[in-house]
Amino acid sequence: MGDKIHQLLESTPEVINVGLELFARAVRQQGGQVHEIEWKPPLVEPDQRALALFNDPTIAAANSEAVTRMMRAQPVVVDVARARDVIPGMTDRTFLHAGPPIDWDHASGPLRGALIGAMLFEGFASTPEEAMRKLESGFIELAPNHEHSAVGPMAGVISPSMPVYITVNANGTNRAYTNFNEGIGKVMRMGAYAPEVIDRLRWISEVLAPLIGQALRRSGGIDLRNIIAQALQMGDECHNRNKAATSLFYREIAPYLVECDAPASDIAAVLRFINSNDHFFVNLAMVAAKVMADAAHGIPGSSLVTTLSRNGTEFGIRVSGLGDHWFTAPANVPRGLFFPGFGPEDANPDIGDSTITETAGFGGFALAGAPAIVQFIGGTPADAVRATLEMYEITVAEHEIFRIPALDFRGTPVGIDLRAVIRTGILPFIDTGIAHREPGIGQVGAGVVRPPARCFTDAYQAFQQQYLAHHALTTDARREE
């Protein structure tokens, strides 16, 4: 025994580390070898009565149905119209916003800035000060985009007169709407409302949107799923990187644009705007994802997460089998790279509906196929691969259409399973833009973030209660028979 102990003390230690990197780092610092096993404790210790829900075949079948509907939804953008004319439930004073429900008193800086900008755009106010007074008085009705079949990036504000894309599910009956992308930097979706921001919104409304609408009608509709599938194989993840997708959309729309009945100068300006804005497609990626996710929503017994969204104050999720109830918690602050002159102290908590892309199986979930994105959000290409591989642990399928060449054309992880998040302790990985915490400034960087765990633990408790109640009713019915 003594010889063995002596031999052990004189040899280089070789350690298996489970969980915390802190322990592995300490061994390496002492010259030891470490074999790491990734493990995290479950977010909730399941009640003994509910352990069966992790292996219940009826839940698995419901999730299979939900994710199949999500993957096979075929979003086609067909037209453009004014928001109040097509978005369900929208009135002349309805302002939609990203994330779960919120009021002016609790709105973050970028959301307040975007609402001020929308007031100026609509002509409801002539100065920012007047806009703020009216917003404080309840002049408009605030409502989440997601509750009106819509999505919007960052602050996500859609006001009644704004033009929106109309996107239909060619393989179903649902449809969704989104606004137009303004570019990056000082833009309304990031909370800016300077005169040049409002002028750009008016040009989009008066020139860009009508021409895009006319071109879409001429085209008979453009298949967004097909563009996303191609772009994922060309280095995009279609959330923070949309260079390939924008180029593909440009190729699709350009022939129809040049045929439009409009001044050549306007057509040229539209083509230049799309060409100069590498993020032009992100709104279209989002509305495509919304069509896909909504196709999977409302399936009884399904634990599939069909909404991930944030309003700059709270993060919210919705689950297919739990209807339209939001489960919310304070949003986390992204970490990443900042534009010159800005730093982490300037960052607002996470904001935007754009996490619908991760919900539908791309965005941060497809990071392994977009190594260049790390130049914008920070990290390394190896980090990007690890992020995607980790997401397979919390999803129910590999996408039939969205594939990643770097992973031997493996399908992207799709269909976030609430139960898997709880069981593994792994939270969805999101890459995102970063807005300044004060209204009126705009974008200050880009980075990565994860949702707060409480959204999932609260949703799990509700799902467990529903499961146990259903199980009790089923058992009672069988006894009566």
Provide keyphrases for this structure.
5-stranded mixed beta sheet; 4-stranded antiparallel beta sheet; 3 domains; Enterococcus faecalis V583 fold; globular; 481 residues; alpha+beta; v583 fold; single chain; 40% helix
Outline of this structure?
40% of the residues lie in helices and 20% in strands. By secondary structure, it is α+β, with helices and mostly antiparallel strands.
- Give me the CATH superfamily of the largest domain: Enterococcus faecalis V583 domain
Give the number of helices: 16
Tell me, what is the CATH class of the largest domain?
Alpha Beta
Compute the number of structural domains: 3
β-sheet strand percentage: 15-25%
What summary fits the major beta sheet? Answer: 5 strands, mixed
Poorly predicted tracts of residues: none
| Global morphology | globular
Tell me the helix content: 25-40%
CATH-defined fold name of the largest domain: Enterococcus faecalis V583 fold
- The secondary structure category is alpha+beta
Estimate the mean pLDDT confidence: 91
Number of strands: 18
Radius of gyration: 24 Å
Strands side by side in the biggest sheet = 6-8-7-3-9
